[in-house]
Design a protein that fits this description.
The protein has a single domain, classed as Aldolase class I (TIM Barrel), CATH 3.20.20. It is an alpha/beta fold. It contains 12 helices and 8 strands. α1 links the parallel β1 and β2. The chain binds 1,3-dihydroxyacetonephosphate (13P). The site of 1,3-dihydroxyacetonephosphate has 14 residues, from β8. 1,3-dihydroxyacetonephosphate binds next to β8.
Length: 250
């Protein structure tokens, strides 16, 4: 059985002192969970988060990286830099980055490859707009994004990629995809991975749902056959709410 991975994406929120407090408060509450817990924090919080999360079962990720190792890219941070301070995960191709910072399927693929070259595990985001959903194109859009993001990876790398299916219309809107729609989309992604990399690889890949996940809907989403956890935005900013999502079975 695949494990459940519950990752918080703090986006552009939280200062270092708030980060330390959050992890100090959360760690004892989730120390016995069998699920994987990840916090993807702003660059300025990474170092503090890593220090505070040492000797806990909370893993730390970044929210973006550049695909080059170093060079004249003012304002950017490379995978090599993230790895140098022991960051373990990195979100790649979040829809906000695709929408506001010109990320394309091509840059997403370059970043995913660079993440692996630097020993980081990517959390790759795919998802459709409302317009695309209404046009009946969900499967086409998300399977194509998945295929392009993973192009050129080895089977082993694909197995170690986390995919987050995040319908754009459900992000930060309070609107969650129904558990059936979310599961169908995740299944379509898994089927595409099976076509390209084989059923064994597809059966092992963690595919999360993201978009207005909260403690009140986590259980029904996570009980679906193919949904392996969530990438959580707003609800990951409050210790108690995030804890409840991690302890969704209770
Ligand atoms: P919300 O949970 O705030 O809708 O955000 C989802 C998201 O974008 C996580 O990456």
């Amino acid at each position: 059985m695949r494990r459940k991975v519950i990752a918080g994406n703090w986006k552009m929120n939280m200062l270092p002192n708030e980060t330390i407090q959050f992890i100090e408060d959360l760690a004892p509450l989730v120390k016995d969970t069998e699920h994987e817990v990840i916090l993807c924090v702003p660059y300025t919080d990474l170092f503090y988060a890593l220090l505070t999360a040492q000797n806990t079962n909370i893993k730390i990720g970044a929210q973006n990286m550049h695909f080059a190792e170093s060079g004249a890219y003012t304002g950017e941070v490379s995978g090599k830099m993230l790895k140098s301070i022991n960051v373990e995960y990195v979100i790649i191709g979040h829809s906000e980055r695709r929408q506001y910072f010109n990320e394309t399927d091509e840059t997403v693929n370059k970043k995913v490859k660079a993440a692996f070259e630097n020993g980081l595990k990517p959390i790759v985001c795919v998802g459709e707009t409302l317009e695309q959903r209404e046009a009946g194109k969900v499967e086409e859009i998300i399977t194509n994004q998945t295929k392009l993001a993973l192009e050129g990876l080895t089977n082993e790398q694909v197995e170690n990629t986390i995919i987050a299916y995040e319908p754009i219309w459900a992000i930060g809107t309070g609107k969650t995809a129904t558990k059936e729609d979310a599961n169908d989309a995740v299944k379509a992604i898994r089927k595409k991975i099976a076509e390209i990399y084989g059923q064994n690889v597809a059966d092992g890949v963690i595919i999360q749902y993201g978009g207005s996940v909260k403690s009140s809907n986590a259980k029904e989403l996570f009980s679906m056959s193919d949904i392996d956890g969530a990438l959580v935005g707003g609800a990951s900013l409050k210790v108690e709410e995030f804890q409840k999502i991690i302890e969704f079975e209770k």
